[in-house]
């Protein structure tokens, strides 16, 4: 019977492929020059490989629009005196494709010679001379197996980004804690963009609050970023939201890991270029529960994202962005939960009840004004709110006591920001950028715990406000057609404790030929601590004091260099080396302590361990080498392979003792690849494969006899992080179809995560009954299904 059904399905696909007509869709956009003194005129836009040639030219407004056959296409834009640029696009019958191209003047102008800009997303971003960065398309967020439409999970395919465990999407870059990542969307710095974990300082979670259906191409900085970025230590995730279609109304419906979703985009008026973009999502587990299905715990969440764009005139535009998300989950760690994590033999001494609630708001408005072809300004005002509530109750099974509160958190933080940036291009070879940022933090932090850990059980109970002021300037100059230099400085001042930072940055890039690029960048970088840490109370005779109030910024000096060789069309290989010296890291004011804030998030925790009596004396050191070979999507397939060898260590600053950090897995290897089978362009079958192999996180062994005698866990302080959990290994396989109908397109994707059924480690626990450390294991193979349909009116 199964063979018969498979044969009928194959015959159906074959018949459909040959029986249906070829559909087309509108591809339109604009073509502009980055050089204010050299404007684009009558640029040619064509479909690469089309026979006969399908194409058009831009009009007097530098706009174009033409019909392109559905399927994956390469759109090429040519103009005399400029480098030719190519764009990989997915053309479907359900949605128009919009391209906004910016061309660079060609440095070589010879008759009958075509200068083509490589589609190399690893090259320095925004024409800056900086290493340690990569741009990526939103389509990659869906294409890579196991990404599940989450940008944070997608970047785990890149060199230097280590997967800690499968349950969360923390971004661990080159041995640094995920606390060091800064998220930006349309120029607005946002808090942790995840449901259930909007807590102060957190940067990871289980379900993303971001909706990739609304995002555009974005940038990911792994180190040594340029002067416009600051208040980060390990990485910058700079996301851009796309604008809605201002010529047509389009809609989509989607169901998958991130929820059930409905979205719409279109124009306010046919007589203007203004547009809107809107989506709403709701958690699938909660819908299943409402249908009467029983589950051990139910994550509930929903979110709304929107963006509106208004073109006031030829020189002024305004856009408004908004994100709202709310989530709740409560569960009990008991026998059933231990069995789920393959810990049924673990003899627990207590059970726990955990409830987490979070609420997040992002609202911002951006005004752009073009004073002249050479000078433009961007102004942003925004409001970001993080509201996180966590309640943890514990029952002691030995004496049968009632549930007791061991952790209660209610952290509310409002951030009001104003940001202004001025850009002046003296010429194509010379650009100056300067900016000012002002943040006003209004907060109410309440954190309580068992009095056994903090005197009177109060960790912090504070409300108030403080300011953060930042300024930067950056100058780029092309010394020749092959050599460019970018230099800048970033400054930051915090009124909370009058701490400031001045950080020079510089980068150089040398491109001797179109196929070879060498880049070197570096500078100083700093980040303030998780805000509630400044207000942790420390008991003293007659009361308490804030022993963390004068903590300095965590600081880092970074150097990054790479060599990139585009050895064949659509292929390139890259070798990158880096060195990072971290200093002024918070550690305990105790020469014998090994605690450091660099370990935050090391076990994939949903909270940050609170500590008082901290001083900014700790140091850290990360260095490594990364190798990448990549083929961009062409001829229906792509491939990305990379490997990383690295070292991550730290000290407490009081002595010369150096320990490995919990993230010091020493090696990382990724392979991602995929192929698409086009059947007359109406049916497309796609497959994607991704594999990761990485050294496990580290932990400190327990002294068994001392622990039995003391009645609490005693660690072997002579072997800090000497042990390592088993290496991380995972293979994901994704397959599905895309079908273009006359008026709509539907797509089905099945993600078989962890197809080898490997039980990776969630974390380590100490079994007090058996007196041994045991592993909490994550589930094996997990299937995820995503179905999407989009159409236009």
Quick tags:
mainly beta; 22-stranded antiparallel β-barrel; five-stranded mixed β-sheet; 6 helices; globular; disordered N terminus
Description:
The chain has 793 residues and is mainly β. The chain contains six helices and 45 strands. The strands form nine sheets. It has a 22-stranded antiparallel barrel. The chain has a five-stranded mixed sheet with strand order 8-15-16-11-12. The radius of gyration is 27 Å and the shape is globular. The protein starts with a helix and ends with a strand.
Instruction: Give me the number of helical elements.
Output: 6
Distance between the termini: 41 Å
Q: Oligomeric status of the shown chains?
A: single chain
The value of Rg in angstroms is 27 Å
| DSSP strand count | 45
**Helical/strand content category:** mainly beta
What kind of sheet is the major sheet? 22 strands, antiparallel, barrel
The fraction of residues in strands falls at over 45%
Average pLDDT score? 86
Q: Helix fraction? A: under 10%
Q: Runs with pLDDT <50, length 5+?
A: 1-19, 108-127
Per the principal axes of the C-alpha atoms, what is the gross shape?
Answer: globular
How would you summarize this macromolecular structure in one to three sentences?
The protein is mainly β and 793 residues long. The chain is built from 6 helices and 45 strands.
